[in-house]
Amino acid sequence: MSISAECEPAPSVEKPHLPSPMKRTSRIVFFGIFGIENLGNECTLQSILQSARKRLPDQDIFAISFNPEDTLRRHNLHAFAMSHQDFAGVVRRGGLRGRLEKMVRICRRVPGELTDWLTAIRELRDKDLVIMTGTGMLTDYMTTATGFPYDVFRWTVAARLAGCKVRFVGVGVGPIYGRASRLLITTALSLADYRSFRDQKSKDRIKKKGFNSDKDPVFPDLVFSLAPETFPQPRAQKRQIREVGLGVMTHRDIHLSNSDEHHVQYSAYLDTMCDFVLWLLEHGYSVRILQGDARHDASTRAELKARLEGRGISYDQAGIIDEGSTTVEELIEQIARVDIVVSPRFHNLLLGLMMSIPVLSISYDSKHDSLLDGVGLGDYCHSISGLDLGKLIEQFTSLVARADEFKPLIDRRAQEYRNLLEQQYGLIFGELGTAVQTEAWEV
Fold first, then answer.
1. What CATH number is given to the structural domain containing 125?
2. pLDDT at 53
3. pLDDT at position 88, please?
4. Which residue, 23, 115, 283, 381, shows the most beta carbons closer than 10 Å to its own?
5. Is residue 45 in some structural domain?
6. Which of 214, 133, 228, 223 is nearest to 172 (CA)?
7. What residues contact residue 2 under an 8 Å CB cut-off, 6+ apart?
8. What DSSP character marks residue 138?
9. Residue 194: count of CB within 10 angstroms of its CB
10. How far is residue 430's CA from residue 247's CA, in Å, rounded to a whole number?
11. Same domain membership, residue 66 and residue 194
């Protein structure tokens, strides 16, 4: 694989038509899958919030979150609740019984929907702009149409009814299985006055679902704009690669496998990860377990530890470090200590790249391929489905051997991505330096 290819030129972006501003303070709201302890999503909010506060110090900023108290604590940011109802839309059982259970849950939800809609419109009535960030919301992976697709639709329509502008900024598009999900997502996108996608594959994916994305630009993931002071100082001296950051995750796509099939696949994934840990230890590496989702990854960490202990491996004696992480700062500090990152968590990989750390992806979606292709590491993606120990070791060994070769390219791409995102922030925040005029749109 050659790493000498030049970066893709900056995307050609047509600045959206923006109305003449009124002279008053504008009020901005960030929407995303916040407050669920997914540190990648919290990275995304932290990134765009840093830019907004720097560019617009006098503007009022809010968020929409599944846990407003968590968002206030993490970001010092007042947030509105996504919904007063606890309903993620996950299919829990197949067959007739599962469908009946789903209908019962939906019927129980209906009385609260009117309240949710009225609350959303009321909260946004005096706001000017709703920015829909990435955070994996344009998909029904791990959920159904009544999950994230419906949340995006409700708040987009509520924003338009309230007179707010809506901008989808740096969004990725995951798998969309259901027709209802496709309709909700594409309708929400069509109501925006600006859209940009995180990668070309996301743009192509939504186009295949019938949405015309031809004129929408592609920009890097928003987390590439995290302020440099967020990260520790780089190491003063080059050292031999000896500590590996190993990410783990609970992976299940409810649309692709039944519970028995998933159990077999998940068990095989954990067995291979155990085999890889053993190989690393036998070859003189220490292992640091990385957690990208404080809610869901803990169980996988515990099961990996139990399986290794079943093979006679004690974490304390073997030098395996497993501290967990509940904040972005803790995760960054842990990644900064390793020499190579091997992970299925997208933002484990991205944060590693921002600290000049070569990464190997255990991929469950094409977004991993796009990320690594962009920095010249496209040969170091490995599918989480059918994880092959021999190939994984081969890729890891090659990456270690070429680490010094890749680091300058990673640094250059990361800086180029940061510059591109500054251009995008100029587009979406530019007119807010004075204020934004709001006017209701017909929906």
1. 3.40.50.11930
2. 95
3. 45
4. 381
5. yes
6. 133
7. none
8. B
9. 23
10. 38
11. yes
260 φ, ψ to 5°?
A: -65, -45
CA angle 315, 305, 37 (to 5 degrees): 110
CA-CA distance, 208 to 133, in Å (whole number)?
21
* Secondary structure (3-state) at 112: helix
Ramachandran area for residue 319 (φ above 0: left; ψ -120 to 50: alpha; else beta): left
State which residues of the chain have pLDDT below 70.
1-24, 86-99, 101-102, 105-106, 235-239, 252-260, 433-443
Local structure of residue 339 (DSSP, 8 states): S
Closest CA to 291 of 283, 300, 282: 300
Report if residue 435 sits inside a domain: no
* Residue 200 tokens, joined: 């070309």
pLDDT (0 to 100) of residue 432: 79
Residue 224 in tokens: 């590439």
142 shares a domain with 36: yes
Among 377, 380, 324, 329, residue whose Cα is nearest residue 351 = 329
Read off the pLDDT of residues 97-122 as tens digits, 9 standing for 90 and up. Answer: 666 766 776 677 777 889 999 999 99
Average pLDDT value for the chain: 87
Crossing angle for the helix pair 179-190 and 200-208, to the nearest 10 degrees: 120
The tokens 């094409």 sit on which residue? 366
Domain count, the chain: 2
Question: How many other CB atoms sit within 10 Å of the CB of residue 38?
Answer: 23
- Encoding tokens for residue 433? 């330096």
Q: What is the per-residue pLDDT for 263?
A: 78
CA distance 151 to 211: 19
Give the Cα separation of 148 and 437 in Å (integer).
29
Separation of alpha carbons 174 and 367, rounded Å: 8
Per-residue tokens: 332: 């960054």
Q: Compute the distance between CA of residue 292 and CA of residue 306 in angstroms, rounded to an integer.
A: 20
Tokens of 282: 């036998």
* Close Cβ partners of 443 (under 8 Å, ≥ 6 residues apart): 157, 160, 161, 191
Where in 77-116 does DSSP place strands (E)?
79-81
Q: Does residue 393 come out as left (phi exceeding 0), alpha (psi in the -120 to 50 range) or beta? A: alpha
pTM above the 0.85 mark? yes
pLDDT of residue 385: 84
- For residue 143, what are the contacts with CB-CB under 8 A and spacing of at least 6? 88, 89, 90, 149, 254
